[in-house]
Specification:
Helix 1 packs parallel to helix 5, helix 1 packs across helix 7 and helix 20 packs parallel to helix 21. The chain is of the alpha/beta class. The structure holds 2'-deoxyguanosine-5'-triphosphate and calcium ion (2 copies).
């Protein structure tokens, strides 16, 4: 209990930011960033592993970082970070979030104008002092003014995967308490949204049980903000709000339904109850004083004449009408996936060698993966040129000879250049089974140019999967703007695939775009984009997002056997 992986990752990211403001060695900074990324997406809790030697064995975590992880987990503190914070205060670090402000500029603001926080910056702009600093033109100044005036949204939503690191142990803790028979995390978390605003926790407990008292003792809890007989609210150590409600068995299903939401879904189901002269609330479905249903969610839906609606669909986007006609889609499940068409190795920016990625895929019960390392291009670290790609293909052919019941597909992830050309010539791609194409720069082109660029890339004979199609990074980068209808049509007509990227910070094809794509007959590839064996677990996130987009196994190429995948992508 105590330190979660996301805390370690946050600490490393903070160190990287502070070192960069200090103008430290870029290799050290990159090592921290890389470690933060690895740790954040590690499926196992570091605190449950066995200390320095095991951390050291994680690719990307060296001896020094392993020691820091031990220090943080054992003491809850990190001396190196505290020393840095004395030099660069947190408010100064926050300046890095403003448009155009990288570490170099923040350092210049500190040293030349003594600007250490937003207020200082506002005053410097108002006093006209900013233009005296080298590198601060009129353009950046007006962008900064606009951002400061907006007071920045800091919208406070957390990646679901980060919330999960807190939700899972909290659930286990509450479930272990005496008298507690069931615990569910409801709300947007249960609906599988890519981000959550807070956690809504339901505890089923009998009379005499005191789970809310035990909640106060919970190590991850920073403070209790409100507490009553059946409900408490608190803030977890990472700032995430939790609402915990204690519910008796006979109401548990109704409460689970109510607090799972969404609000729109609830409003619609409550109206259906009213049309029958009943009342639906978090306590149950009632005909006057008589309880009609409510011990289980199934009983609530059944009484309303509806098939059970999976939580991912509960957004009032037609699921209630479909449930009434018994015509809900048979949503895809993780076990439907036979392969993964977007996987990296240490040949480019991955952590694990080919053999280890294969072993990890076999452990995930997959029967094929496509190795899609980055092709060489400006700004891509260790990208493969045609020569290295050919050698990797040879290695894959050789390894395939030794494998039974598993196939490695040859592939590459190729940049779509600004003009729609690909970063490698067609000839270099000829031998590959899967060519994943993606935008990695020039995110801010106007809509028509961005669309044209992607359409041009899709015309190339070997381009088969459009990867992370919107480019957003949750909380970091907005999606690029393009005409998705045109892109969907192009992908369908060419017989290619649109990717649902399962990286927890990406999931950039939103649920509604997925639904629109499927309705237009576009085939999907659900991909982990794994950069280490562990990250094949990203497929779970892709599944969740796809389910929210009404996806069935028939919409997804990598539910098909490898021979079919090959022939589809070849034709
Ligand atoms: P979040 O936390 O912003 O990611 O989204 P949710 O959906 O978890 O929303 P939250 O935490 O405000 O409330 C949890 C559920 O409680 C919500 O999905 C539906 C239900 N709920 C909350 N407020 C209302 C309301 O005013 N009317 C109805 N019918 N249901 C509500
Ligand atoms: Ca919530
Ligand atoms: Ca809530």
């Amino acid at each position: 209990m105590g330190i979660h992986n996301s805390d370690v990752a946050d600490a490393f990211d903070e160190i990287a930011d502070l070192l960069s403001i200090e103008g430290e060695n870029p290799f050290r900074i990159r090592a921290y960033r890389r470690a933060a990324r690895i740790v954040r997406s590690l499926p196992r809790e570091l605190a449950e592993m066995h200390g320095a030697s095991e951390y050291d064995a994680i690719p990307g975590i060296g001896e020094d970082l392993a020691k820091k992880i031990v220090e943080l987990i054992d003491t809850g503190r990190l001396k190196a970070l505290e020393t840095l914070r004395r030099k660069v205060p947190p408010q100064t670090r926050e300046l890095l979030g403003l448009p155009g402000l990288g570490p170099v500029r923040v350092r210049a603001l500190m040293s030349e104008l003594k600007v250490a926080n937003r207020r200082d910056l506002e005053q410097a702009i108002a006093a006209g002092r900013l233009k005296t600093v080298h590198g601060f033109g009129a353009g950046i100044q007006s962008r900064l003014e606009a951002a400061l005036a907006r007071r920045e949204p800091a919208n406070g939503r957390l990646q679901r995967s980060v919330a999960a690191q807190y939700a899972k142990p909290l659930r286990a803790y509450l479930a272990s308490l005496p008298g507690v028979s069931r615990v569910e995390i409801a709300g947007s978390y249960r609906r599988g949204r890519d981000t959550v605003g807070d956690l809504d926790v339901l505890v089923c407990a009998g009379r005499g049980a005191k789970p809310l008292e035990a909640l106060r003792e919970y190590a991850d809890l920073r403070e209790i903000s409100a507490s009553g007989a059946t409900k408490a609210s608190g803030i977890l150590r990472n700032g995430l709000q939790v609402d915990v409600r204690v519910v008796p068995q006979r109401s548990f299903g109704a409460a689970l339904h109510y607090f799972t939401g969404s609000k729109d879904h609830n409003v619609h189901t409550r109206r259906m109850a009213q049309e029958r002269g009943w009342k639906l609330s978090e306590y149950g479905l009632f005909d006057g004083k008589r309880q009609v249903a409510g011990a289980t969610e199934e009983s609530v839906y059944r009484a309303l004449g509806l098939a059970f609606i999976p939580p991912e669909l509960r957004e009032d986007r037609g699921e209630i009408e479909a449930a009434a006609r018994n015509a809900l889609p048979e949503l895809i499940e993780r076990t439907d996936l036979k392969g993964d068409l977007h996987v990296h190795t240490d040949a480019s920016d991955g952590m694990d060698p080919l053999e280890r990625m294969v072993a990890a895929a076999q452990a995930q019960k997959l029967s094929y993966i496509a190795i899609t390392d980055h092709a060489k291009h400006l700004g891509i670290v260790h990208g493969l040129d045609a020569e290295r790609l050919a050698r990797q293909a040879d290695a894959i052919d050789a390894l395939n000879e030794t494998l039974r019941g598993f196939t490695i597909l040859k592939g590459a992830e190729v940049d779509i250049l600004e003009d729609g050309q690909l970063a490698l010539p067609d000839a270099a791609l000829e031998r590959l089974d899967v060519v994943v194409v993606a935008v990695h720069d020039h995110f801010d082109l106007p809509e028509s140019r961005q669309t044209r660029r992607i359409l041009r890339a899709l015309e190339r004979p070997r381009a088969s999967v459009l990867a992370h199609p919107s480019g957003r990074l949750i909380g970091e980068r907005e999606p690029y703007v393009c005409d998705f209808r045109k892109i969907f049509d192009a992908v369908r007509e060419r017989g290619g695939c649109l990717e649902v990227n399962g990286q927890p910070s990406r999931l950039d094809l939103t649920d509604s775009l997925i639904k629109a794509a499927v309705e237009r007959g576009v085939r999907l590839s659900l991909a982990s984009d794994a950069h280490s064996g562990d990250q094949l677990a990203n497929l779970d996130g892709a599944i969740r997002q796809a389910r929210r987009g009404w996806v069935t196994r028939r919409n997804v190429l990598n539910t098909r056997p490898v021979a079919e995948v090959r022939s589809v992508l070849r034709s």
